[in-house]
Amino acid sequence: MTGSTTEAARPVSPASALPRIAALVGSAPARALAEAENLLQTAPGLGPAELLACQALRQLGRTQEALSRLDALARRDTRVPAVLWELAQTALAANASTAAISALERLTALQPGISHGWFLLASELRKAGRAEDAWRADISGVHASAGDPELVDAALAMNEGRLDEGIALLEARAARGGEDAPSLRLLGELHWRKGDMSKALDYCGRALGRAPGFDLARDFRIRLLLQTNRLDEARREAEILVESPLENPAHRLLLASVLVRLGEHERARDLYRALLDLKPDQPQLWQNLGHVLKTLGEQAEAIAAYREAVARQPSMGEAWWSLANLKTARLGAEDIAAMEAALATLPEDSDEHAEDRFHLHFALGKALEDAKDYAASFRHYDQGNRLRRARVPHDPEGFSAEVAATAQTFTAPFLATLGDGGCPAPDPIFVVGLPRSGSTLVEQILSSHSQVEGTLELPDMMIIASRLQARVDEGEFADFKTMIASLTPRDRVRLGEEYLEGTRVHRKSDAPLFIDKMPNNWQHVGLIRTILPNAKIVDARRHPMSCCFSGWKQHFARGQTFTYDLAEIARYYRDYVGLMAAYDAAAPGAVHRVIYEDMVHSTEAEIRRLLAYLDLPFEEACLQFHTNARAVRTASSEQVRQPIFTTGLDAWTHYAPWLGPLAEALGPIEAIYPQPPAR
């Protein structure tokens, strides 16, 4: 008995006892508490022992007791991070939010480089209704994570193209309990670079779920949503982003970009002007403002904005081209000299300045065309097209093969086998054809009708077609025809409804019909009729030499990669008229054709014929289309705000000496125009 008492009273060494107690806290908290209390008897006030006792108390559910002791310990040991962390954890377990926030604020002030402290603080601040403070805490957490070695390694792997390795590093980190908002956002970018947009969006969404104040993750998610044409979601995210407590003009710029995509140009204009009021020496902002003003028909203001841009950056090729591309504006001798001087300052072998160079060549081509110096004009158009063609992918052979496969799919017998199906809504009017074919004129005429709303060149049908084609490319079906044949009536209804739902965001009025003026939809006429059998399709067609040359000398902001070579644009025109002829044969009368030259010479008769096809009554406003103040985004935006004129019909003839390759590539198509080719 005496021996036992002596053994129990033997002093306990802190150096040996503390590690043993720490190991017991998680698995045997009662024993850990007993041993910590025993150690405190022999070493009163020993901070590490008191901390272990409190951790054990929390594990045992005795949170109020632990909280009281931790509060006293934290007041005494004010600069011990472990004490503050345990105080925060215990306060959270005891639902003592104010105490938890206080502890976390002290902890992050003491250790600002530890990201998980910031993220936990942000979460608690948000629960307490302190939204702005929570947002700032999330941002601090993101900044703190920048030095995390595992995230640095994963980012380095991503930047070096080792995408799978980067993903593996972050997934291993998550398996060890290290998943947080920065690692989720990085996983999103890794999957985006691999081409998996669905996973990229999912990981970005999860990152924002963890840290709603993670501005960079929200910015990235908005850009992903824009890429997938989910414009309503992009707007909602952008509206949140501009409320960030960290003032960043880039956030308002991104919102303006979303608004432009949605057709809300007035609000975008106001955002650009507000930003320029704060910092007027921004050529890119002036250019963006010019684009919006041009779309709104505020031509004089657009010209002034573009000139502000080039005054601040004389080599800004896109701003010069935008000025030249105002079809009713003219660039004079001083402008030509300024552009030539700017071009001379740009090194020819610099990839950084390649876009400025080809934009300047296109602008000089237009200015010299207006000056009637057609030889010099052609040289610049030619140089601009060559520079642009070198930077865009276009496979004429592959495209022609796709068109041929489409023609072989939607034959009369095949259409008969499909039977009924598709969404019966009559809402869409598709205006198709080549760019510069008069499609904007047709759209402006129709959108002047009380029952028709003009929208934009909508990508939705192309997205659906691309997704279906991907099923063939991935080997799910032997060919495109087999894939289309596999669509059940319900599938076709669902696809039609998907199109209508996706385009709904662009409909701002209560007009029953709306126009989708994506010209490239001529490739998908068969698909349109399959999933939207009551939709109307208008084919806007122009003389092949006039249309192709006009497209070749037009620089397009995006897409239309076939337009930068005379032979390639001729081949594209042939593919187009061939497929449309095939569809005319398969479904006579399904497509209404507007010949541009006929519309110019016999406007009222052609408008009446067009409206009859659409089952719409004639309205005088369609003849007065040029008074329609709606926003127009295409290259013809100024032309359709004027009465029809005939001066542009034969503009290509000034360049006839240099258009031999175009005429040769068109072959007999030119001679028989406007008759369709024989199949």
UniProtKB/TrEMBL annotation:
The keyword Cytoplasm does not apply. It comes from the Bacteria. SMART domains: TPR. Transmembrane segments: none annotated. It holds the Pfam family TPR_8. Keywords: TPR repeat, Transferase. TPR repeats lie at residues 249-282, 283-316. InterPro entries: P-loop_NTPase, TPR-like_helical_dom_sf, TPR_rpt, TPST-like. Gene3D superfamilies: P-loop containing nucleotide triphosphate hydrolases, Tetratricopeptide repeat domain. This is Sulfotransferase. It comes from Novosphingobium decolorationis.
